Every structure is written in structure tokens, then in C-alpha cells.
Amino acid sequence: MKIRFGILTISDRSAMNGRPDASGPVLEEAILEEGWLVEHTKILPDDQQSVTDLLIEWSDRDDLDVILTSGGTGFSPRDVTPEATTAVIERPAPGLTEAMRSASLQITPHAMLSRAAAGIRGRTLIINLPGSPKAALENLVVIVPVLPHAVQLIREEPGAEAGHRQ
Predict the structure, then answer these.
(1) Considering 13, 64, 81, 90, which has the largest number of Cβ atoms within 10 A of its Cβ?
(2) Which of 3.40.980.10, 3.30.450.180, 3.20.20.100, 3.30.450.40 would CATH assign to domain 4-155?
(3) Are 61 and 26 in contact, with CB atoms under 8 Å apart?
(4) pTM value?
(5) Residues linked to residue 120 through DSSP beta bridges, in sequence order
(6) β-strand 4-10 against 118-121: which pairing, if any?
(7) 118-143 pLDDT, tens digit each
């Protein structure tokens, strides 16, 4: 199954060319290793309106199945990714963020500080990941097993629910 991704890195320093984006390329490599497609990548500063606008644009194009964001999920006053995400999603998907936080707590108590959000807009699943390349990859690995089925359900593919037990 080909899943089409967008990867949005949200970082003031990377957007201003002060620091190379490390998490975006790590996520892209992991997605490509799964045999999936990366259709769009972008780096934006921690600006809620800019993030909101791009999430809407990418979701409403209907050429992406999943948008992964990296960064802006912590406690810093500039961390606004969850707010931008919740402003655009139509249906929340809390199980994804719960699973990521639970797995991350096995690695670091700092996982409790994640405010990541996830949800669906139209036919696009949007998932916030941490900004650290290591943490972003660790969180992605947690949800990779369910992404194909999630996308099948969102696409309303015939037989998507055939594997569900009654």
C-alpha cells in the first residue's frame, strides 16, 4: 500500500537557517524505508497561523494521506503546533498520541511534557511528533504498524473493516 506523506518541521531556528533540520530527513528516510512516498516537505517557524494555513492547504489538496509535524509540542511559549493542529482537525485521534506518550515514557520521563495532538481533516491524518530527531523517530516507530489500516479506513477502501472482529 502506497501512503502519501507530507513532513512539516516547525522550528524557529531551522526556518531562519540557523540550524539544519535534522528531524525532517530522519522521518523521510524512515517513511521511504517502509516503501511509502514523501510528497511534500517544508520548514516553518513556530507561528500558529503559518502552521494552521499550511496544514489546511496540504490537507485540502487531497494528495496526502498523512501529515507528520515535527517540533513545537513542548511547554515553551513558542510551542504552538498542537494548537495549530487542533484548530484544523475535524476529528481527533487521541489513541495515536496516547500510544506514543506511553511508549516514550518507557524511555524518558520527559514524555509527560509532550502536548502532541493528532486527528483527521477530510481524508488526511495529521500527527504531531517531537522536534528531536531521536524522539521523532521513536514516536513514528510506535504508530507505523497502524498507519496502513488508518489510511484504508479514512479512504473508505472496500474491505478496510473486514479484519475487525465483531
Answers:
(1) 81
(2) 3.40.980.10
(3) no
(4) 0.95
(5) 91, 125
(6) unpaired
(7) 999 999 999 999 999 999 999 999 99
